[in-house]
User: Which sequence fits this backbone?
């Protein structure tokens, strides 16, 4: 066993009988302090006299310290209470300080303080010194300015005002349990960190995309219990759930390395192999039970402090946590909570995220034997996905009842792609496949092309299915919801049962007929436009004929008036021969006015005759004729 003797200066002539136990490491009292001590009056000056030997031995862990009793008793109440006991009064006995906070290094600092030497308080040692001073009961009752008050002042006024120092102190508290907890050092540090983080919330939000540059890494370095204390304090200050979620994700990334690993071999189902084996993380050695227990604790703790808001963490992270939870066999209640949370945001998931490997009894690294055809030996855990989809449907139904939002069944494409992936597993039973395919309501899928692809993949992977099982499988598909391309492919697919092919052929004919009918309305539309133009032209012709008839009737009236005037003129001429020249001149003017060519009348062979209606209309409305042609 090593020992450590407290000496003033290296003095070979003052060695005691215990030289064989003295370690090379010594605490040296500088000679200048001896000179100062000579001027002291009182009993406290004796302990640095050069010729006084040590009279007590104190053991901390594996090191024995040979010290003077009185300097320690004067400042340490714990040692003072033991002074009257034979254990401390006898030079042959050693006082053992069991579970001393901070170990030998901190005890040496305490010894320096007791001997009046300068002690340098730093963020990385202040917590240990504070806990050790509490252990030794170094209170103000024994001496004013004792170590408890000095360390408390340094913690309060120096450490907690600095982010960096607070982080350092809290990190050092991980090895000081339960003293650091009982003295509220951990609580004060966590509150200080949370206050500083929430105070700079806008800055944090801007830096959230670059987590390397802000407080996420500092907080993620703590032990899980301290991390949870910080998150709880930050949440109490109404920090946004997205910020808390990003911090939790950073912690998981650091302490759960399996979060980002791809599970190799999940898609290599080994078709045609008679002896199939699949090992999760086959390239890694099985972890120790202690480490597995630590991982399990971290997972359970992170799940328990996840913010309840949907926007706190993405669906991909929840599914990664679910895989890790299943790997390390966390409590069923927390696993179920994760499944429900995934179900709420399932629309944001991807197919690869849903490929959850099956773990036997939840043991990490456990080999899954694939020799038999039991559905329990599928590589993927189908039951988990089924529960997640059911939680999704329950959540959507609740939202509809509360009228908070309209249900969105965009999950069909995700589930169909998932079915296409697991259909390649030769051990997947037709019952399990059918249950998953029929989980969604009928009106969820607008097209069944994705489901048809999954069914075809399953039939290809399981060629030994009976005709009955093939028909049973195809009943999950609605042939009326197949696109024309899918119908044409299915009509030539010899893996489908005969009844399904007949239904597909019928639907193909229906779709072809519908496609042809879509063209006929377009052609009938062109014919309708032509008919409308013809009707319009007929109306124009009728209007022209009516106008011509009106012109004819007016011409007849004018001719009648002309004859009547001519007769009257002749009578007047016979009765009044005088002034005939003047009357004759006036009559000629009137007559000439009637001989002017009216509209619709032209002269030929010295006679006036009316024009035809067409000729008259052609001069008046030339544009309308052109439009008719």
Assistant:
């Amino acid at each position: 066993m090593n020992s450590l003797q407290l000496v003033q200066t290296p003095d070979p002539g003052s060695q005691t009988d215990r030289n064989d136990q003295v370690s090379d490491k010594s605490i040296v009292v500088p000679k200048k302090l001896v000179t100062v001590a000579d001027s002291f009056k009182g009993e406290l000056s004796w302990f640095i006299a050069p010729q006084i030997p040590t009279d007590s031995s104190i053991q901390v862990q594996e090191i024995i310290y040979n010290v003077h009793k009185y300097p320690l008793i004067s400042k340490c109440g714990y040692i003072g209470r033991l002074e009257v006991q034979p254990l401390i009064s006898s030079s042959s006995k050693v006082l053992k300080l069991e579970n001393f906070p901070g170990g030998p290094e901190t005890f040496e600092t305490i010894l320096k303080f007791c001997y009046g030497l300068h002690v340098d308080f730093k963020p990385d040692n202040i917590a240990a010194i504070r806990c050790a001073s509490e252990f030794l009961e170094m209170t103000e009752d024994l001496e004013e300015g004792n170590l408890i008050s000095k360390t408390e002042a340094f913690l309060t006024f120096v450490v907690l005002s600095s982010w960096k120092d607070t982080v350092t102190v809290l990190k050092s508290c991980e090895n000081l349990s339960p003293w650091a907890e009982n003295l509220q050092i951990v609580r004060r540090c966590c509150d200080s960190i949370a206050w500083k983080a929430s105070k700079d919330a806008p800055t944090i939000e801007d830096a959230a995309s670059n987590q390397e540059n802000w407080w996420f890494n500092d907080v993620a370095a703590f032990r899980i219990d301290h991390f949870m204390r910080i998150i709880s304090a930050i949440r109490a200050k109404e920090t946004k759930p997205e910020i808390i979620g990003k911090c939790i994700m950073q912690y998981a990334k650091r302490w759960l390395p399996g979060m980002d690993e791809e599970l190799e071999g999940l898609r290599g189902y080994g078709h045609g192999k008679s002896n199939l084996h699949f090992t999760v993380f086959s390239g890694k050695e099985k972890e120790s039970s202690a480490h597995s227990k630590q991982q399990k604790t971290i997972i359970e703790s992170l799940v328990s402090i996840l913010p309840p808001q949907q926007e706190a963490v993405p669906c991909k992270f929840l599914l990664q946590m679910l895989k890790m939870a299943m790997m390390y066999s966390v409590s069923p209640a927390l696993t179920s909570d994760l499944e429900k949370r995934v179900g709420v945001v399932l629309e944001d998931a991807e197919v690869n995220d849903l490929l959850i490997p099956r773990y036997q009894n939840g043991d990490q690294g456990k080999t899954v034997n694939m020799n038999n055809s039991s559905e329990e030996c599928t590589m993927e855990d189908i039951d988990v996905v089924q529960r997640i989809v059911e939680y999704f449907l329950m959540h959507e139904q609740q939202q509809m009842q509360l009228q908070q939002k309209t249900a969105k069944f965009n999950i069909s494409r995700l589930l169909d792609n998932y079915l296409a992936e697991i259909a390649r597993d030769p051990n997947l039973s037709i019952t399990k496949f059918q249950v998953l395919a029929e989980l969604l309501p009928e009106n969820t899928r607008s097209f069944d092309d994705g489901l048809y692809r999954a069914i075809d993949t399953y039939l290809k992977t399981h060629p030994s299915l009976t005709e009955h099982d093939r028909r049973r499988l195809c009943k999950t598909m609605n042939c009326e919801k197949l696109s024309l391309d899918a119908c044409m492919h299915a009509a030539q697919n010899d893996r489908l049962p005969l009844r399904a092919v007949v239904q597909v052929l019928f639907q193909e004919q229906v779709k072809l007929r519908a496609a042809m009918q879509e063209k006929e309305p377009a052609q009938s539309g062109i014919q309708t436009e032509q008919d409308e133009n013809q009707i319009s032209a007929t109306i124009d012709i009728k209007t022209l004929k009516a106008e011509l008839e009106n012109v004819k009737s007016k011409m007849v009236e004018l001719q009648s008036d002309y004859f009547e005037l001519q007769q009257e003129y002749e009578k007047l001429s016979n009765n009044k021969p005088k002034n005939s020249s003047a009357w004759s001149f006036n009559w000629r003017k009137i007559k000439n006015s009637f001989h002017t060519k009216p509209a619709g009348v032209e002269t030929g062979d010295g006679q006036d005759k009316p024009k035809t209606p067409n000729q008259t209309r052609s001069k008046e409305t030339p544009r309308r004729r052109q439009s008719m042609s």
Q: What stands out?
A: The first helix runs from residue 31 to 38. Strands lie at 2-7, 27-28, 56-60, 63-67, 95-96, 277-279, 367-369, 601-604, 607-610. The mean pLDDT is 75. The radius of gyration is 52 Å.
